[in-house]
Design a protein that fits this description.
With 524 residues, the chain is mainly beta. It is built from three helices and 33 strands. The strands form seven sheets. It has a six-stranded antiparallel beta barrel with strand order 1-2-3-6-5-4. The chain is elongated, with a radius of gyration of 26 Å. 50% of the residues are buried.
């Protein structure tokens, strides 16, 4: 399994091995005995080749980041796990997503270019030279310790009972035991389960219906039953580095460059929402790019407000049908509580997709298909007639007039209420709906092309009333393309996210009846 070792025993192995350069090479987690992992299973597990002198295991926690044991990179692991931040001392190559190392299809082989160590425990974050987009990272981190005797899985590319350098990932089940402030002890469920050399840094996790939750990283073990271990060694326990109490730190490191590695000048539609299969209580972000591709940025949860997104999932390639999307909003189109999308297409078709996830959009329902809908310039779904369901659709038309369609989930676009008449000052304006004033129903924000921006509290079918000026005519908000409501900082009220014309990205936290407050810069 993943490289665990008692410090002294590990060093003894190095000194005694004629193949010291590949000492820690190994395979997966059912290290001693047990069935090898099936093709494609636990694909988030990685093998590290550290300049041919050591091999460890690791776990992919974000497309650009691995988590592993700091001791893998230490000058002398027997004397501690301290390692300097920055580029690794030795060339390190990670093989990710290949259950069978003998195969070259699938997964990725990428160099490690940066280390970010955690000072208080045997753990380091390792940044990859480029994102790995064809392997799904671990889904979540345990935010509390596993229960005593709870069954967990351990995986790695370390030695097995009869193989020095396996070429396949292995895994085994272990029971949770005693803990310290930074470690968790585990013991194999079967009498031959063990964590061996080469498994160090590999993941300890729960796994249910393709959902992996990370609880620890392999650090040390007794290694009884591992190939090359003295038969007098009887310890089959292992010590894991805990991650449950530092999940926020891990996510902060892993999410720091998720947004900056893309060119936001190319973002055509930016749509916040709480989408299915994504983690976190804050808003996720759906983006359609100028080339017709589409991405979902998954929320990082209740963490640093400067880093609200943890993963980017590409759900459509360049040239896809998303190039024909003219207006997009998130909407609560199913009883699950998750959001889907409502889209006005270039053809005049208006569609609702009940679900958006990392797999893409699903369950399309056509609401309308006519030339008149080609005049819908901006759309925003909100809770405007029922505070419990965000499925009322506000439409800004080409002549500057606005309409509301109530409960589109049940009635489509058959229940129309005209809110305002034609208004040339609102031609080509943008609208967004959100909870800002806390009055029950959602508010509507209207930003005109000259930068004038107003908030209309608790918008209902009676129309625009009691407008609150957020920005005057001629303000810098004329460069916000678009300006959309979502929950990014975890505050009581919703925020306003702006994609600026120069490619910068920022949001205003906790917008309310008194106006905007702190601007948090995300890109630029």
């Amino acid at each position: 399994m993943a490289s665990a070792r008692p410090r002294a025993a590990w060093m003894t192995g190095i000194l005694a091995s004629a193949a010291a350069a590949t000492l820690l090479t190994g395979a997966p987690a059912h290290a001693v005995t047990g069935d090898p992992v099936a093709d494609g299973e636990y694909a988030f597990t990685a093998k590290l080749d550290i300049d041919g002198r050591r091999a460890c295991s690791a776990a992919l926690v974000q497309q650009e980041w691995l988590i592993t044991a700091a001791s893998c990179f230490a000058d002398d692991p027997a004397k501690g796990f301290k390692v300097a931040p920055g580029a690794p001392k030795w060339k390190t190559t990670a093989t990710i997503g290949r259950t069978d190392l003998g195969r070259e299809d699938g997964g990725a082989v990428v160099d490690v270019v940066e280390l970010v160590p955690r000072e208080d425990r045997d753990l380091v974050m390792a940044r990859l030279a480029q994102p790995v987009t064809n392997v799904k990272p671990v889904n979540a981190f345990g935010y509390q310790l596993p229960l005593p005797h709870e069954t967990l899985r351990a995986a790695g590319y370390g030695r097995t009972k009869d193989e020095w350098v396996p070429d396949r990932l292995h895994a085994a089940e272990f029971k949770a035991g005693s803990t310290t402030a930074t470690t968790l002890n585990i013991e194999g469920v079967s009498p031959d389960a063990a964590v061996c050399q080469g498994d160090t840094g590999g993941p300890l996790f729960t796994y249910n219906q393709d959902y992996a939750q990370l609880f620890g990283i392999h650090s040390t073990s007794g290694q009884a039953g591992c190939f090359g271990t003295d038969e007098s060694e009887k310890r089959r326990t292992a010590s894991e580095t805990r991650v449950d109490d530092i999940a926020g730190w891990i996510q902060a490191v892993a999410s720091r460059n998720v947004l900056s590695r893309v060119n936001w000048k190319n973002a055509v539609h930016v749509v916040p929402g709480h989408f299915d299969s994504l983690d976190g209580e804050r808003s996720d972000l759906f983006v359609v790019w100028a080339d017709g591709s589409a991405s979902v940025f998954a929320s990082s949860g209740k963490q640093d407000p400067k880093y609200p997104f943890l993963h980017e999932y590409k759900i459509a390639d360049a040239g896809s049908y998303w190039k024909d999307a003219e207006a997009v909003t998130s909407t609560e189109a199913n009883p699950s509580g998750y959001d889907g999308l409502t889209v006005r297409w270039k053809s005049g078709k208006l569609s609702t997709y009940q679900q958006l996830s990392t797999r893409g959009v699903e369950y399309e329902k056509t609401l309308a298909y006519s030339n008149s809908w080609k005049n819908a310039r901006s759309i925003a779904a909100g809770r405007h007639t029922d505070k419990h369901r965000r499925n009322d659709l506000v439409v800004l038309w080409a002549d500057g007039s606005t309409s509301m369609y109530s409960d589109t989930d049940a009635f489509g676009v058959s229940r129309e209420t005209q809110l305002t008449r034609a208004d040339k000052t609102r031609v080509d304006a943008q609208i967004t709906s959100g909870q800002f004033t806390g009055k029950g129903l959602d508010d509507l924000i209207v930003r005109t092309k000259n930068g004038k921006t107003d908030l209309f509290p608790s918008l209902g079918t009676t129309g625009f009333r009691d407008g609150i000026a957020l920005r005057p005519e001629g303000s810098a908000w004329k460069y916000a393309q678009p300006l959309v409501a979502g929950s990014f900082g975890g505050g009581k009220q919703e925020d306003l996210l702006a994609r600026w014309a120069d490619g910068n990205l920022s949001y205003y936290a906790d917008v309310d009846a008194s106006g905007t407050h702190q601007e948090i810069q995300l890109v630029g």
